Hints:
By secondary structure, the protein is α+β, with helices and mostly antiparallel strands. The protein has seven helices and 19 strands. The two termini are 43 Å apart.
Amino acid sequence: xxxxxxxxxxxxxxxxxxxxxxxxxxxxxxxxxxxxxxxxxxxxxxxxxxxxxxxxxxxxxxxxxxxxxxxxxxxxxxxxxxxxxxxxxxxxxxxxxxxxxxxxxxxxxxxxxxxxxxxxxxxxxxxxxxxxxxxxxxxxxxxxxxxxxxxxxxxxxxxxxxxxxxxxxxxxxxxxxxxxxxxxxxxxxxxxxxxxxxxxxxxxxxxxxxxxxxxxxxxxxxxxxxxxxxxxxxxxxxxxxxxxxxxxxxxxxxxxxxxxxxxxxxxxxxxxxxxxxxxxxxxxxxxxxxxxxxxxxxxxxxxxxxxxxxxxxxxxxxxxxxxxxxxx
Length: 328
């Protein structure tokens, strides 16, 4: 179940019709409108009766030297915002899937198309299906569904990560874009037997205070040495200045060990370049790659890994020199 708010800032009939709809009025308001229409029919055809509240604001502002225009603008915008809040209607949608494309299951966004039988689809799906409705095989992608577009533009929702600190409110059609960029996406603590979940910033503070000494501290652009047992799955690294968390992943294979490094953070975060050096009997193996951004250790599977042959192990332990480069 989703609770949304239908805003009233745009009274038109959608992108294709700039004409505003007539607002429903009460009996007392209807008499006032008739009087206003009578006044507007007089020779002063281009004059409009000011709203009393706005007029009061303007009269006060004209008495202020130098600041009248700025305060008048604030008064009008405040009045408009108040009217918009009054016209917002709380709505409960028991099946949010009706606002998603029935083909790709992503949130619908303008433009929305419909076939002759009323099935709706997003523009990208129409092009991918060569303008043939998968439900009834009728042509689709030529007729816009204005009612659905108007509804999507009116719906305002809060971010799913609101309880983790996100205060953004946006239209439903922007849901997917915001979720990809939101820095408050929940992230699970990488330490074993800890179920703490928070945004990346809060998680870094949690690790710094609750798991002191359980990870390896490092500084960007400088090599650090870490030791891993051949069967040890991961080790946690934390940067000393910005407290970003990194995971060194290790997996025992037939020919040696595969390693790679991940960074814990939001999906919009850019990866970090890193170097891994393994030494054995005068030989040095240099490996380079870019971190994958993850939200939990269980999401760390990667098609890119670095193989360190078994001959670089000594007494069942792997010694690695690691340098993670800053993004500046």
